[in-house]
């Protein structure tokens, strides 16, 4: 682009200086009024890179020189620094642009024609800023919106003019429609003297210009403009508004003058001028300075004026081009997927002028078809004629017919509407006849007005068919809403709907007929399937019944075994009981003792509850202590009076309440608890006050006091009264071990909690004694958290003692664990409070080993709760829960967590995204798809476990993964095919191929196991890249020498080309090389691929299409060599080979390494896609042989025709055979034409299998002890059609004889090179071999005669062209049409370097020497090992059959065959072949053969004896090439 290394280095030096300048800092001095530049690395680097001293740099940035030097503060210094940076960078950029423009101008000068017009062309892309409106809009927004106004005006004129020019060009009736114009807005902005930019430029020119003066001038000059607005509220803030085409926008004028000047201070300009860096001097002309006369400055031009000039130039350039507009709409402001804001879309359409364009289009003819497309779509409407004629193919007649039907439909609609209005009027109002007549006359008037209003072209709609027919053609079309243009048919919306309705009706009738036939077929198949299924079901049921019988038998056996065991057990018990009476009595005594202890314990517990040990109950007169004291006193008295008399024993009697008192107390207690349960608090309190100690009575069965009962309710007064009656109740447990404070916490009663905490604070630390079930009891805080009490209650308990959050209940659970088990009702604020008092709780496990985070996820708590837990313990996201071993992320998916929660867990524990769950063996994405989470989450999971490296686009780089891709593609039931599509659209061709062939755990590729819609997404990408779907991943054929591989594949019809990683090199045109030869009368059919429109299908139709989509079988040939590709294309192009006789090349394109192509080349290569055959001749012959049928004569004729096409276009195939000809539909084509050779050129020995005898060279070899052996090799010869005729003869012989020709009988097992022994057989092929071969053909002489012409050892006696073959009486075609081309034989001089024998005489010499060598070899073998002669060889040697074909000269009799010594090159003897049954071939009566096309080859006399001797001495015959082998 015109940059040398020095220029690049200088430019990059300035860029580095700009980067360092951004890091410069200033230090304030003199209390912030001045500053100094810090001498650090950044400032020193900037000074060095700019080529100035540090002092000058600091002075230019921290001071302003003039008449008086002024020091700048830090804010002003930073602004000066920013101005310097901006100026340097802008000047550097302008310099780069200038150099590039000069380079382009010099390298690509404009070419002018004779008239001097510029013929250069270019394509430019203009990205419009887009209309901008923010809370604060400044000078930049005005410039951007000014640009949008200008381009919008151009868009309006361009679009509307194009629409009207289209109608005028087509010559149809058209009424001009006005369109909006925004020229007044443009005048407000850019008009001279009174425009906004002009006023701003005036303030920039004068020295005293400021923003305030600019605003005042703006209000004075622009105030009267209709598009300008400045309200009293805006003027104090120096604001104004402009009414743009998109709406009203308010602008703030702060710093507009400074922005419009955009000049570099004089100090900075002098700094740059003093630079010793040469590149800075080059930028002086691009620097905008404060003074206009200083060095290095240009004439001052404001930013607004410069912007306007550039915009004018852009507008002029656009006016000289043919623009095309693309409108990009933003669906929402949040940039969220699958979110569509209709209001925002409508506003964008309105602001961009699209709605006006649509209005113009709807006012005209929005639907239009080219003539050909209209005929192809609506040709079936011609069948609606009353005359019953065939479909009308004339465009005008079809338009006439269509216009009439549309008019009839419109008239019927108008009449129906009028009848409906009359009926409604008669039903609503039944007035007098005069009223009805008056209304009828008014309706007629209205009707006439309606008719004129409906005719948009001011044409009255005719009422009758007679009136319609009187109108001319154009008027009739206008009435119907049609217009016939020169190249298109234009339709209004109503006319289009009518025509489509008619078309759908006709197609519907046809579809119903097809459906009736098809449904009958489907129901028949369904019946057959049902019958087959019924039989299978019966078999399964019978199997089930038999299995049930067996299970019953086994159950019976188990019952019998149990019964016998039970009897044995009873017997053993009986035997044990009868061991002895003494033992039995011991057992009874032991049981009684145990029962006594148990009953005593229970009785004591009951007495302790009824009669407490601290005193006597109701009715007790004396306490036990008094009785003991009295007894002790009496004893002393007795002892004093009697002396030695012993005192009588004192009996202490414990007295209690009477029975009446106990019964009364029980009645009162029951009444009290009944009143408490009915919440009659006052009556219950009065009853407790009447009966002393009634408040101390516990409820029977529960052990609850009245204080427990009232603690369940928020009743302050009631609770206080009952508490005062029995204060000790605060420390009394019920039967469940609960204090009143536990009951209050359980029922969420805040008032009793606060009262008890004040009266009895120790209760908040008391544990429940006997909790029910597995609740774990605990202190009141545990109970409150377990029941999810209110936040105020839990806060009250916490405020009493913060350490209570650290205590665990009987199960080891903390309060936060118990609270989180309440699920979605848990408040995040309460959890936050618990964790604030005891943060370590987030790391403590509950009774099951779960952390609080796992508990919250299991019970589906709110997202804010999970977020709070993660904030306190981020590592919890990486810890698996104790009970199930699931990770938190897995639990989130399992319990339907929302997206925010899941994203938070993924960010805290990214390693768990692909972690396998230990219990289920699933990865998170599997659980996510099972629970049907959002596509956003699935996409996020998939991105983190993709099997390829996404940033590496050029090469598909596989990375370790956990098979998330395989699961989503194969096991998600197409729920997330949109995610698969989104991933594939971000991939290049190698990445799409790699993703399609990623293997799952079972070794299956993703494409093979994909669900229907996902597989379709793959195929869509394949079509974009012209990629094939390989059927078998192993190459069907591989050529190691050329590096070519052939695969069988499926090809799907590709859509239109799109930009990507695909580069099309060649696409076969069916119109070219598709000519059928004049001699071929076979019919030709071509099917074109039709690309369906999936966007027009609903979900069900799309799924059905995807499931039934079938690709076309093709052959993919991969090669990295361009010469192979050129040969494939050039052979067809240069020789005009027809696609009807040679397989068509569908496409040739670049491809990358395909993951399915094992051992394929890794570098970018070519893929040649060719049509695939139905069956090869080889397979068809084998199938015919196995079935015992007859090979069709039409197929033999088709093979011959394909070969004739090759020959008559100047080529010889050279590798023709049953493997290289195949059937495509009903036609036979020749494969492998890339290696074909021009007639007369030398053959390729290494190519092919079926070489004729003249191409095989026989030679003798000296072995040990003076013995000799023979060998064979294929040599190059001058090739002509007889070379392929021999190969065709092998196909013909195998087809009519039912077995291969003897030298090739082992080739049908595998295609390989012939062995030396097999080549020797071909080389010694002579008349005797031909006679032996004819023995396996039936008695049809025409078949034998044709075989002789095809397989004759002498190429001169062989058929000289395929015309001779096809004109043979066997085929019954007669003489072929057309004239055969004649190809010259090669000149002898051209072949003298390699060919030592006359090409026209080599055949006889060849046969002579061949017989001599064969006879010599057989005689030598017979003399050495006479005893090893096989019986079959002796039989063939003694046989003398009559000659089949007369040679030009008599040939010597062959010497009888003898066995050779066993060696690698020994000649195998001809095996005895059993005579098969003759094959019957039906042929028409023989006709006189046509003369051969080629000039007969003259036969030269035998070679001289010296030449023969020389040839014999060299032990070689035929053509001599190179050295002796």
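^ structure tokens above, recovered residues below v
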């Amino acid at each position: 682009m015109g940059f040398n290394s020095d220029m690049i280095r200088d430019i990059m030096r300035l860029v580095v200086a700009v980067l360092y300048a951004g890091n410069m800092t200033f230090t304030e001095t003199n209390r912030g009024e001045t500053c100094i530049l810090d001498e650090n690395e950044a400032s020193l680097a900037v000074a060095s890179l700019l080529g100035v001293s540090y002092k000058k740099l600091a002075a230019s940035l921290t001071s302003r020189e003039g008449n008086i030097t002024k020091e700048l503060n830090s804010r002003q210094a930073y602004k000066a620094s920013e101005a310097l940076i901006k100026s340097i960078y802008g000047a550097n950029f302008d310099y780069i642009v200038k150099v590039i423009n000069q380079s382009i101008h010099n390298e690509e000068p404009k070419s002018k024609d004779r008239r001097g017009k510029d013929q250069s062309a270019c394509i430019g892309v203009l990205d419009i800023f887009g209309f901008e409106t923010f809370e604060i809009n400044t000078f930049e927004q005005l410039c951007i919106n000014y640009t949008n106004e200008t381009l919008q005006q151009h868009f309006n004129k361009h679009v509307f003019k194009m629409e009207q020019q289209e109608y005028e060009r087509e010559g149809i009736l058209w009424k001009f429609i006005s369109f909006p114009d925004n020229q007044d807005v443009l005048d407000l902005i850019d008009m001279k003297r009174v425009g906004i930019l002009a006023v701003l430029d005036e303030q920039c020119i004068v020295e005293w210009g400021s923003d305030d003066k600019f605003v005042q001038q703006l209000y004075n000059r622009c105030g009267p403009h209709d598009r300008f607005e400045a309200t009293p509220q805006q003027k104090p803030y120096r604001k104004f508004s402009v009414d743009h085409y998109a709406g009203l926008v308010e602008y703030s004028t702060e710093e507009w003058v400074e922005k419009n000047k955009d000049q570099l201070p004089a100090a900075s300009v002098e700094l740059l001028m003093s630079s010793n860096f040469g590149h800075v001097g080059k930028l002086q002309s691009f620097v905008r300075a404060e003074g206009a006369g200083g060095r290095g400055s240009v004439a001052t031009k404001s930013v607004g004026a410069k912007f306007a000039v550039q915009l004018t130039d852009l507008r002029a350039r656009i006016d000289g081009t043919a623009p095309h507009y693309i409108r990009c709409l933003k669906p929402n402001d949040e940039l969220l997927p699958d979110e569509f804001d209709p209001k925002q879309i409508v506003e964008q359409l309105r602001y961009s002028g699209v709605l006006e364009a649509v209005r113009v289009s709807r006012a005209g003819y929005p639907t239009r078809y080219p003539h050909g497309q209209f005929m192809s779509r609506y040709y079936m409407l011609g069948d609606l004629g009353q005359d019953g004629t065939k479909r009308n193919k004339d465009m005008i007649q079809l338009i006439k017919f269509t216009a009439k039907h549309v008019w009839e439909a419109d008239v019927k609609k108008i009449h129906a509407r009028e009848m409906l209005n009359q009926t409604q009027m008669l039903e609503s109002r039944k007035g007098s006849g005069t009223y009805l007549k008056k209304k009828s006359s008014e309706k007629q008037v209205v009707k006439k007005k309606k008719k004129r209003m409906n005719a948009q072209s001011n044409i009255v709609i005719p009422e009758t068919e007679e009136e319609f027919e009187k109108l001319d053609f154009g008027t009739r079309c206008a009435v119907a809403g049609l217009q016939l243009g020169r190249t298109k048919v234009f339709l209004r919306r109503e006319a289009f709907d009518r025509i489509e309705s008619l078309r759908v009706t006709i197609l519907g009738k046809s579809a119903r007929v097809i459906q009736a036939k098809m449904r009958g077929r489907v129901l028949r198949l369904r019946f057959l399937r049902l019958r087959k299924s019924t039989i299978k079901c019966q078999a399964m049921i019978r199997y089930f019944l038999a299995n049930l019988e067996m299970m019953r038998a086994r159950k019976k056996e188990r019952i019998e075994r149990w019964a016998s065991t039970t009897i044995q057990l009873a017997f053993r018990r009986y035997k044990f009981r009868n061991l002895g009476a003494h033992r039995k009595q011991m057992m009874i005594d032991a049981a009684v003792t145990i029962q006594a202890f148990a009953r005593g314990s229970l009785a004591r517990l009951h007495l302790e509850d009824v009669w407490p040990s601290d005193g006597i109950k109701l009715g007790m007169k004396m306490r036990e202590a008094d009785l003991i004291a009295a007894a002790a006193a009496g004893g002393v008295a007795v002892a004093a009076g009697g002396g030695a008399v012993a005192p009588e024993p004192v009996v202490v009697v414990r007295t209690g309440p009477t029975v009446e008192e106990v019964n009364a107390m029980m009645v009162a207690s029951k009444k009290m608890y009944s009143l408490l349960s009915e919440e009659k608090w006052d009556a219950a309190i009065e009853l407790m006050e009447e009966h002393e100690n009634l408040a101390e009575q516990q409820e029977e069965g529960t052990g609850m006091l009245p204080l427990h009962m009232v603690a369940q309710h928020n009743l302050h007064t009631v609770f206080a009264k009952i508490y005062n009656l029995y204060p000790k109740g605060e420390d009394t447990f019920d039967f469940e071990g609960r204090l009143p404070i536990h009951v209050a916490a359980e029922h969420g009663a805040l008032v009793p909690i606060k009262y008890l905490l004040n009266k009895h604070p120790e209760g908040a630390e008391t544990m429940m004694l006997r909790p029910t079930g597995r609740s774990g009891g605990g202190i009141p805080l545990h109970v409150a958290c377990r029941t999810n009490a209110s936040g105020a209650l839990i806060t009250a308990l916490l405020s009493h003692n913060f350490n209570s959050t650290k205590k665990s209940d009987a199960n080891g659970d903390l309060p936060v664990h118990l609270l989180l088990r309440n699920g979605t009702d848990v408040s995040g604020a309460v959890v936050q409070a618990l964790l604030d008092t005891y943060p370590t709780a987030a790391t403590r496990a509950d009774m099951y080993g779960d952390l609080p985070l796992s508990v919250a996820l299991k019970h589906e708590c709110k997202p804010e709760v999970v977020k709070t837990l993660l904030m306190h313990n981020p590592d919890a996201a990486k810890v698996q829960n104790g009970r199930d071993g699931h990770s938190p992320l897995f639990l989130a998916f399992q319990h339907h967590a929302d997206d925010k929660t899941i994203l938070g867990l993924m960010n805290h524990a990214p390693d768990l995204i692909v972690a396998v769950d230990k219990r289920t063996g699933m990865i998170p994405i599997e659980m996510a798809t099972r629970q049907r989470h959002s596509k956003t989450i699935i996409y996020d999971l998939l991105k983190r476990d993709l099997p390829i490296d996404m940033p590496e686009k050029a090469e598909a780089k596989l990375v370790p993964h956990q098979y998330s891709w395989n699961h989503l593609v194969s096991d998600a039931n197409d729920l997330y095919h949109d995610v698969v599509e989104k991933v594939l659209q971000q991939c290049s061709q190698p990445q799409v191929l790699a993703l399609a062939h990623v293997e799952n755990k079972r070794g299956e590729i993703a494409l093979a196991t994909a669900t229907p819609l996902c597989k379709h997404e793959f195929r869509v990408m394949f079509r974009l890249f012209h990629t094939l779907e390989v059927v078998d991943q192993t190459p069907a054929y591989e050529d190691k020498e050329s590096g070519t591989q052939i695969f069988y594949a499926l090809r799907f019809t590709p859509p239109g080309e799109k930009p990507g990683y695909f580069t099309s090199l060649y696409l076969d045109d069916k119109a070219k090389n598709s000519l059928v030869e004049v001699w071929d009368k076979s019919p030709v059919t071509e099917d074109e691929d039709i690309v369906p429109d999936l966007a027009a299908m609903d979900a069900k139709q799309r799924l059905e299409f995807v499931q039934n989509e079938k690709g076309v079988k093709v052959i993919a040939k991969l090669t990295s060599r361009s010469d192979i590709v050129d040969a494939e294309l050039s052979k067809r192009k240069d020789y005009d080979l027809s696609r009807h006789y040679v397989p068509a090349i569908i496409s040739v394109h670049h491809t990358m390494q395909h993951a399915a192509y094992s051992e394929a080349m890794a570098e970018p290569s070519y893929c040649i896609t060719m049509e695939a055959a139905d069956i090869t001749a080889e397979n068809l012959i084998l199938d015919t042989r196995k079935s015992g049928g007859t090979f069709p004569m039409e197929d033999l004729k088709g093979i011959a025709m394909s070969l004739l096409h090759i020959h008559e276009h100047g080529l010889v195939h050279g590798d023709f055979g049953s493997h290289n000809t195949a059937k495509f539909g009903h036609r036979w084509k020749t494969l492998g034409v890339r290696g074909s050779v021009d007639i007369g050129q030398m053959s390729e020995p290494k190519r092919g299998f079926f070489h004729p005898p003249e191409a095989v060279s026989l030679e003798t070899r000296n072995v040990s002890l003076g013995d000799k052996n023979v060998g064979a090799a294929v040599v190059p010869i001058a090739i002509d059609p007889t070379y392929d005729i021999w190969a065709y003869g092998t196909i013909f012989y195998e087809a009519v004889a039912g077995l291969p020709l003897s030298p090739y009988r082992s080739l049908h097992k595998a295609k390989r090179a012939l062995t030396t022994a097999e080549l020797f057989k071909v080389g010694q092929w002579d008349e005797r071999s031909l006679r032996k071969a004819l023995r396996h053909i039936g008695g049809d002489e025409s078949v034998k005669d044709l075989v002789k012409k095809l397989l004759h050892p002498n190429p001169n006696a062989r058929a000289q062209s395929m015309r001779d073959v096809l004109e043979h009486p066997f085929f019954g075609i007669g003489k072929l049409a057309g004239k055969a081309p004649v190809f010259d034989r090669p000149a002898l001089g051209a072949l003298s370097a390699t060919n030592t024998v006359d090409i026209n005489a080599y055949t006889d010499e060849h046969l002579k020497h061949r017989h001599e060598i064969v006879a010599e070899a057989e005689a030598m073998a017979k003399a050495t090992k006479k005893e090893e002669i096989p019986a079959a060889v002796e039989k063939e040697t003694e046989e003398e059959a009559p000659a089949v074909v007369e040679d030009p000269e008599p040939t010597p009799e062959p010497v009888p065959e003898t066995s050779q010594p066993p060696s690698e090159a020994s000649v195998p003897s001809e095996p005895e072949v059993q005579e098969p049954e003759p094959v019957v071939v039906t042929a028409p009566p023989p006709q006189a053969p046509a003369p051969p096309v080629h000039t007969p080859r003259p036969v030269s006399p035998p070679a001289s004896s010296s030449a023969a001797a020389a040839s014999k001495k060299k032990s070689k015959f035929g053509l001599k090439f190179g050295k002796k082998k």
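Residues 1401 and 1499 are 6 Å apart (CA to CA).
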